[in-house]
Write a structure and sequence with these properties.
Largest sheet: 5 strands, antiparallel
Oligomer: single chain
Number of strands: 5
Structural class: mainly beta
Helix content: under 10%
Number of helices: 1
Strand order of the largest sheet: 1-2-5-4-3
Strand content: 35-45%
Length: about 70
């Protein structure tokens, strides 16, 4: 996964799969989802990111750990 913040256009892009985009859809105002030919999400773009995301210049990555059922 790749995350890119462009301060000039104030967009935050999260690329999940680096493959060609077949279709894009603005699911909510300012949030664009890109899909591959199979209909799977390959990337997401957030417009006016500095107004929608806290600390757009800092990214924290975490891996969730599952807790075994008791």
């Amino acid at each position: 996964m790749k995350v890119i913040y462009d301060p000039e256009s104030d967009t935050l892009t999260m690329i999940l799969k680096d493959i060609p985009v077949a279709e894009s859809d603005e699911s909510k105002p300012g949030v664009i989802l890109d899909y591959d030919s199979a209909g799977d999400i390959v990337s997401m773009e957030i417009l006016d990111a500095s107004k929608r995301v806290s600390q757009v210049r800092n990214i924290e990555f975490q891996t969730a750990t599952s807790i075994a059922a008791k």
